[in-house]
ABC-type antigen peptide transporter
Amino acid sequence: MHRWINTSLYLYMIVDVAITNLSFGYFAPGWKFHTDLFVNITTFSLPYHFTTSPLEFQIFLFIRQTFCAIAVLLIILGKKEKTKHLLPIVTFNAVITYCFSLVKFLAFSEDYEQLYYPGVWFSVVWAILSGALQVLVWYFVLSSQSFDYHRLLSTTADSEDVPSPETAADSTSDTPSNSNVESGATSPATPRTPLRQVLRQLFSYCGHQWPWFVAGFFFLIIYAVARVFIPNYTAQVISDIVNRGGTAVLLHSIFILGILTATSSFFGGLRGGCFDYATALVALRIRLDLFTSLINQDIGFFDTSKTGETMSRLTSDCQTIASTVSTNVNVFMRNGVMLIGAVVFMFVMSWRLAMVTFIAVPFVGFITKVYGKFYDKISEKLQQTIADANQMAEEVLSTMRTVRSFACEKREKTRFENLLSSTLSVNRKRALAYMGYTWNNEFCNNAILIAVLWYGGHLVLNDKMKKEQLITFLLYQMQLGENLYMLSYVMSGLMEAVGASRKVFELVNRKPQFELNGRLKPTVNGNITFSHVGFTYPSRPNNPVLKDLTLSIKAGETVALVGPSGGGKSSIVSLIEHFYEPNDGTVSLDGVQIKDINHIYYHQKIALVAQEPILYNGSVRHNILYGCDFATEDDMLNASKMANVHDFVMELEKGYDTNCGEKGVQMSGGQKQRIAIARALVRNPAVLILDEATSALDTESEALVQQALSRCAQERTVIIIAHRLSTIEKASKIAVIVKGHLVQMGTHSELMSETDGTYYSLVSRQMLSAKVGDE
Ligand SMILES: Nc1ncnc2c1ncn2[C@@H]1O[C@H](COP(=O)(O)OP(=O)(O)OP(=O)(O)O)[C@@H](O)[C@H]1O
Ligand SMILES: [Mg+2]
C-alpha cells in the first residue's frame, strides 16, 4: 500500500516537473522544440515581462512540489494521516492556480501572435490540470478517507458546546444535556448520515411529485429562455436610441422586448404555482412517512425518545424541509437555465471578457462549498436546540399542575431561557458565518465588475471589441451575478433543508427493534404461558427485570400477581401486551407464540387496564369505543354498567358526550379507571389484564366494580395485579413475583400455610397495618 502511494506521488512529481519545464521549449510558433528557449526560461535568463514571461508557472510548480515534498516527508516519518490536514490548502492552491493561469492567458493574448505558441497552451492547461490532479492525489491516495470538513472543525470550536453522541455517552458528568446517558447505551452512537444519502432521499421525495415538478420545469424553461433574451434586446433598444436609428427600428425592438417580457411573466406565474403546490405535497408526504414510522416503532423507542423533540421534528423540521427544498429546486433550476444562457451570450460577445468573469468562479465556488458544509452543520445544531426548547416547553406545559404545586415556575422559566440562549448562540455563529460569506461574495462581485469594466474598456479602446457588445456583455454579466447570487442562496437554503432533514430521515428510516408482522389467527381460549423468560428493558440493558420466569395461566382462571413494588409485575403485563419481546424464552397464548399472532386480532382478544390509564381528548363514548369499531351502542352501555361508569356519566350534563379533557384531566382518578375498565370490557376479551385497575377507587365503588369483574371473569382469563388483600384473596391462583422471579404460586390458603413464605409475610404486614388503621 505504502509503496503504491509513494510511487504515485513520485510519478506525479516527475511528470509535473517535466511537462511544466518542457512546455517552455514550445514558447514560439510551430511544433518545433527550441532548446535555447527551454534553457533560457528554466534558468531565468530572459528579461521578465508580464505579457510574455511564463515565470509564474515555475512558481506554481515550486509550490506544488513543496506540498509533495511535505507529503513524502510525513509518509517517511510515518504520519501519513496528517497529510489530510493539507487538503484544504492544496485545494485552495489549485483554485488560485486556475484563476491566475486564466489571467496569464489573457495577458498572453494581448499579443495575438502568442496564442499560436503551443507552449502558451501547454503551460496554461497543464497548470490548471496539474493543480486539479494534485487535489485528486490528495483526496483519493493520501487521505484515504474523504474530505470531511466537520472532522476538521470538530477538533476545534464545535466540540465545546454540543456533545457528539459519543462524548455524551462517555461523559460521566451529569449536566442536563447528558441526561440521556441511559439512552446512549441503547442507541449506540449512530454515525452521521452522509450528505449524499440525505440529498438523495430529499430529492426522492420531490421525485414522487414528478408531474408537478415536470410541469413546473416545463414552464420554467419557457420563462427562463424568454428571460435570457431580455438583456440582449434591452441592449438593442439602448443602442437604437444611442445610434438614433429611427422610430420604426426602435418600435420593432420594443415590440420584441414586450413579447419576451409578457411570455416570461405568464410562464413565471405558472411555474411558481406548480412548485408551490408540489411543496405542499412534499410536506404532506414527509410528515405522513415520519408519523407512520414513529407509530410503528417499538415501545422501547418511546421509553427514551422525548415527545417534544419528536413533535418538533414532525412540525418545524418537516415544514423547513418541504418549503426550502421545493423553493430551492425552483430557484436552482430557474437560475441554472438562465446562467447557462448568460454564459453562452457572454462568450459570443467576447471570449476574453467572459474569461475575466470566470476566473473568479471556482474561487467563489470553493468558499461556497466550505461555507455550505459549515452551514449544514450549524443548521442541524440549530434545529436540535429548537427541538430541545420545544421538548422542555412541552414537558412543562403538560405537567403544569406539578410545576405549580412545587412552585417551580421561575426555575422552569430560567431553564427555558437557557435553552433559548443556546439557540441564540448557534444563531450568532450562523450570523457570523453569513457575514463572512456575504463579504466574500460582495467583494468578488464588485471586483469582477471593476475588472470587466477596465478590461472591456481596454478592449474597446484598442478596437478589439465593439461598444454595443460591451453594453450587452455588461447586462448579461449583471444577470449572471444575480443568478450566481441566487444559486449561492439556494445552497444555503438547501443546506438548511439538509440540516433539518438529517434527523427527520433518521427517524423515517429507523427500523423498529421488532416488527408486528405475526400472521396467525388461532382460536383463543386464554391459556398464557411464560417459558423461561428473561427480560431486560432496552433502555437499561444492564438491569435484568425478569429472570428465567416460567408461569402458566390456564384459560378461565383468575390469577393475581403480587409482590413488592418494582418486582416486575407490570413488566410481565407489558410482555403479554407484546410491548416488548423477551430476551430469552417465549410467551405464548394457547400454545402459539404471541409474536406470531396477527397484531390487530391479538389485541381484540386481550385487553388491558393499565396502572396509569390514559384517556383521549374526546367524549366518554369515544374513549370507551376506542379502536373497537365492531361494538354497538348496547355493548358500550353494558360495559359501562359493568364498570360502574353508567351512573356517574348519566349525572353529567352531556352524558356519554362529555369531554374527558387532554389525557383525561377532566375526570377524577377513579372515573378514569372506571372508563378504562369499560374500554377493556367492551371488546369482550378472552384475556383481561387489570394492573392496579381499582387502586384509585373508594371501597364501595371498588366492591361494585369487583363484583362486576368477578361476574365477567367466569368466561375469561383474568390477570389481576393488586395490593389489596380483599381483591387478591378471591383469585383462583396467586403468583408471588419478587425481583423478577416467581417465588411462590398457589391459592390464598395454600400460600398462607407456608408461614415462612413471602406471601405470608406480605399478608401479615398488610393485616397488621389494617388493624393499626382501624384502631
Ligand atoms: N419502561 C421502562 N424502562 C426501563 N425500566 C423500567 C421500565 N418500566 C419499569 N422498569 C423497571 O423495571 C423494574 C420492574 O418494574 P415494574 O413496573 O414491572 O414493577 P412492578 O412490579 O409493576 O411495580 P409496582 O408494584 O410498583 O407497579 C423496575 O426496577 C423498574 O424500574
Ligand atoms: Mg406496576
Summary: DSSP finds 29 helices and ten strands in the chain. The two ends are 88 Å apart (CA to CA).
